[in-house]
Specification:
The complex is a heterodimer of chains A (327) and B (593). With 327 residues, chain A is mainly alpha-helical. Helix content of chain A is 72%, strand content 3%. The chains are: A mainly alpha (327), B alpha/beta (593).
Chain lengths: 327, 593
């Protein structure tokens, strides 16, 4: 296990390094100049040169990247703004804050959104999928399958807006989504503020889990070992959960891990729809503002989330399925 | 949701900040059909004047029925980009700046009329030496948020900070006038090495500050109202970090700020209303919420529940999806303010590539303003523009040389006749716009091409990707004949509208004279108007030049003065439109109980 983690961590770091380099290059390939927006209305060449110097973008590209990379490990000094201690992901000049600070400030929202909706879509999705598998071919199965089909073809920016309009504005059943109150400040307000985004986000994801749980279970219920267990006289419940479900779980855990990794990188559309301030909204802002340090930061967070999720999935997979060994 | 790059070219300090002006051009208008016009208050233009010493004396006139206390909650999609006065240029920043920044002069806004008055100064200043010398006297009782006295040194320090290496975003008019060069940082590096500008003289005992300019600026009193020239105390100057935590001399001070989430301003108890003729400051606090797009905010204000009853739409107006509903529902309509932007949207004609006046005039005749406005959302999206100076500019005289008000759909027959006369039938016209910033452009290009074809032109549409649009159209050797553009004045007199756009001597790569008009009589007329020391005469000269430019040169096709509608909650009182910042006048709002 230790060797596995060590090896995977090393390769994860390599991946992040490559991604940061690619982002750096791609940013400068795009035909836009981040200096122009800080250069005033009557932008003279002298002022433009000054802005470039202020932003640290007058150095050659490899040197800029080296400065950035060095900052991650040993920190970095910014003239007039002070020291940004390691790990320094750079300074966002458009937001007047170190990138890491901005990300850690936004992360609780993204984490709340991700974990909350994961609970909802796993419970709903897997539950419905199990029912559908048990009642295979019956009305319940058909209804569940059709609902999940509709759910998976819906879009957040439609469901979200409609749900917000009716549930919050018109009928006042749920409060308007908000993330200004953290879990530690007021758990009840936190819960209420995120209820709508959780459910709307879950609508889209639930469908996937329903369909997958159903098909995996249908398959494993027909496996020889399940039939054997039943023939031995084990109870239906034991057969279902201990044998069939365990066999079906692997792929679902894999997808769940990747979904969570993906969501931790920022649910851009969901956050925009509900006006939440997570990593997704931050990445949109970075693109809009032409803010390279911030953009690099959010890209790395998203990449790290996916990479870590993959490692976790692989580890969990080995726990679930003894046939798989970590080497 | 357009990319906020150099859009401040269009929308600078004065029109709503950057990208929003651009995007609101489709979202600010009526819903789809564009034929309503029902709720549009036609001809509601403001007037601009210079106030007396009496007008400059506080306190601001009471608003009937207003009461103190409570919290007003402005909602905006975006946070302020700068809080440091010397780095403020966008109107969105100026809007909040009015709560904690004070300049020598400022605008008193009453019923849509703007009056320039002394804010920190006792009046709008004394000019001598043909506009080369300006003297201001500070009021008594001016205080910073820690209770210390605000002095002429603080005013000077604020102005000198405008030369520092980190204040590149702010206005540059005064710096250029004081040093005689646009490269003013090569002359003076700012106050941090202990040196002061020789050209700014302060007298602490008399409380006076005198500016000795290299170039005459009879309109400096207007320039000094820009927050780029706001006072900063040297003692509390944290340089680069000041942008995060500015020190207040206005009625409110910063109490909490979570970047891009929220900002709270609370009462500055050391502010004395007797010194302030502009600001009322009824609420105890302002809590800004950042994030929700205009559509969401509109829905919240329409629903009008809970604390949203104290909310106002800041920065972006009611979008196209809701404007019809808002204008046709009396209960909602009564909770709006609206007004025009002072800036102008127009199509610049490249005079270098289209040197024939008749062709430029034919373009003006042919341009299908009505069809364009319908795409933007109809009459509620704004008024047709026929002049360079907008309706809210001092001394502006309305004219309509190309009959656009009588025939807003375009007079293609007349255009064709002119083209024939010039022997230019079939003239190729390369039209460009920023692609990807706004869907409306994809529709307007069709009606424009149709009208041009009908008028005997050969239109070629060549869009440029939005993020590099300005870089490309601002190249001297570009390949475009007609370019969509926009410009906002920095104060409401002709100079900031006409000089940057039509002075032939400023043509350069990256400059804003994209029409590339280089005519000696225009340059001479600009110099003459800029040097007139009598405000009334100067205004008249700018108005005359406005007309002559359109008549004799036709370097642009004026498009629209855009209109904005902003909703406010049912428990908000004192709502008034700020024509200069195209927003609410925040310091006049009050919370009803």
């Amino acid at each position: 296990m230790f060797r596995f983690i060590l090896r995977r961590t090393f390769s994860a770091l390599m991946i992040l390094l490559v991604i940061s380099a690619i982002t750096f290059v791609l940013f400068y390939v795009a035909p836009r100049d981040p200096a122009r927006s800080a250069c005033g209305k009557l932008c003279t060449p002298e002022t433009l040169a000054l802005v470039r110097r202020n932003l640290g973008i007058d150095d050659p590209l490899p040197l800029q990247y080296w400065h950035w990379l060095a900052g991650v490990f040993v920190g970095r000094d910014y003239a007039g703004l002070g020291h940004c201690s390691a790990p320094c992901l750079g300074y966002s000049f458009t937001n007047h804050e170190p990138v890491l600070g901005l990300i850690t400030n936004r992360f609780p929202t993204t984490l709340s959104l991700t974990l909350g909706s994961a609970v909802v879509f796993v419970v709903l999705g897997v539950g419905t999928g199990m029912l559908a598998a048990v009642k295979q071919g019956r009305a319940l199965d058909k209804i569940a399958s059709s609902i999940s089909l509709v759910g998976s073809s819906l879009q957040i920016y439609i469901v979200g807006v409609v749900a917000m309009y009716y549930l919050s504005d018109q009928w006042g059943i749920l409060p308007r989504p908000q993330d200004s109150v953290g879990f530690s400040q007021d758990p009840v307000a936190w819960f209420k503020g995120l209820l709508l985004p959780w459910f709307v986000l879950a609508i889209i994801f639930t469908a996937n889990y329903t369909r997958m749980t159903r098909s995996q279970l249908v398959e494993s219920l027909a496996e020889d070992y399940v039939r054997t267990a039943r023939a031995k006289g084990l109870s239906r419940r034991t057969v279902f959960f201990r044998f069939a479900w365990r066999g079906a779980m692997g792929p679902i855990v894999t997808i769940l891990g990747l979904d969570i990794g993906y969501l931790l990188g920022g649910a851009i559309i969901t956050e925009e729809t509900f006006g939440l301030h997570g990593i997704g909204a931050l990445s949109i802002k970075a693109v809009r503002d032409n803010d390279l340090p911030l953009l690099l930061g959010v890209v790395l967070v998203a990449a790290a989330a996916i990479v870590v999720a993959n490692i976790v999935v692989d580890a969990v997979y080995a726990l679930i399925d003894p046939r798989i060994r970590l080497a | 949701m357009s990319l906020s790059r150099r859009n401040f070219v269009i929308a600078t300090s004065v029109a709503a900040g950057g990208s929003m002006v651009l995007s609101a051009c489709s979202s600010g208008g009526g819903g789809g059909g564009g034929t309503s016009g029902g709720g549009v208050s036609a001809g509601k233009y403001s007037s601009v004047s210079i106030g007396t010493k009496e007008d400059s004396t506080g306190p601001a006139p009471e608003i009937p029925g207003a009461k103190k206390g409570g919290t007003i909650r402005p909602i905006s999609p975006q946070d302020f980009s700068h809080l440091d006065p010397q780095r403020i240029y966008y109107s969105w920043n100026s809007e909040v700046g009015n709560l904690y920044i004070r300049c020598l002069t400022g605008y008193r806004i009453d019923g849509g009329a703007m009056k320039l008055v002394g804010d920190l100064a006792t009046d709008t200043g004394t000019m001598s030496d043909g506009g080369k010398t300006w003297t201001y006297t500070l009021k008594d009782g001016l205080k910073w948020e820690d209770g210390s006295e605000l002095t002429v040194e603080d005013v000077r320090h604020g102005i000198e900070r405008g030369f520092a290496s980190f204040t590149t975003e702010g206005a540059t008019y005064l710096q250029a006038a004081l040093t005689g060069t646009n490269d003013f940082r090569s002359v003076y590096k700012g106050p941090y090495d202990g040196k002061h500008l020789d050209s700014v003289v302060t007298d602490t005992a008399k409380k006076t500050i005198t500016f000795h300019l290299k170039t005459a600026r009879p309109d400096l009193n207007w320039t000094l109202a820009m927050q780029s020239y706001g006072a900063v105390s040297a003692k509390h100057d944290t340089k680069e970090k000041y942008d995060k935590d500015p020190f207040s001399c206005g009625p409110y001070r910063l109490s909490a700020h979570s970047v891009d989430k929220s900002l709270t301003m609370v009462r500055n108890t050391h502010w004395d209303p007797a010194t302030d003729p502009i600001r009322n400051a009824y609420p105890d606090s302002f809590t800004f919420e950042f994030g929700p797009e205009a559509l969401q905010t509109s829905d919240r204000l329409i629903a009008d529940s809970g604390t949203d009853q104290y909310a106002v739409m800041a920065y972006s107006g009611v979008p196209a999806e809701r404007i019809q509903k808002v204008l046709t529902t009396p209960a909602l309509k009564s909770r709006t303010v609206d007004g025009l932007l002072t800036g102008l949207y127009y199509y610049a004609i490249n005079c270098k590539r289209i040197p024939d006046l008749k062709v430029r005039q034919a373009l003006n005749y042919a341009w299908p303003l009505q069809q364009i406005r319908t795409i933007y959302g109809g009459p509620s999206s704004g008024d047709y523009a026929t002049t360079i100076l907008g309706p809210d500019m001092a001394g502006r005289v309305k004219f309509d040389i190309y009959g656009k008000l009588a025939k807003p759909q375009g007079d293609t027959a007349k255009a064709k006749a002119l083209l024939k006369e010039a022997g230019k039938l079939g003239q190729k016209i390369v039209y460009t716009y920023p692609q990807g910033s706004n869907d409306a452009f994809e529709k307007t290009k069709v009606v424009i091409a149709n009208a041009l074809k009908e008028a005997g032109f050969d239109p070629v549409v060549k869009p440029v990707e939005a993020t590099s649009y300005y870089d490309q159209v601002q190249q001297i050797d570009n390949s475009f004949d007609v370019m969509w553009f926009g410009w906002s004045p920095d104060w409401p007199t002709g100079f900031t509208m006409i000089q940057p756009l039509f002075d032939g001597r400023v043509i350069a790569n990256g400059a804003n004279n994209v029409s590339q008009l280089k005519v000696s009589w225009v340059d001479a007329a600009i110099d003459k108007a800029a040097a007139l020391t009598d405000a009334t005469q100067a205004n008249a000269a700018w108005a005359a030049l406005d007309r002559q430019l359109m008549e004799k040169e036709a370097p642009i096709i004026p498009e629209m003065y855009q209109r904005r509608f902003y909703l406010y909650g049912s428990k908000v009182g004192g709502a008034e439109y700020d024509p200069l910042n195209s927003s609410f006048v925040l310091y006049k709002l009050y919370a009803k109980s």
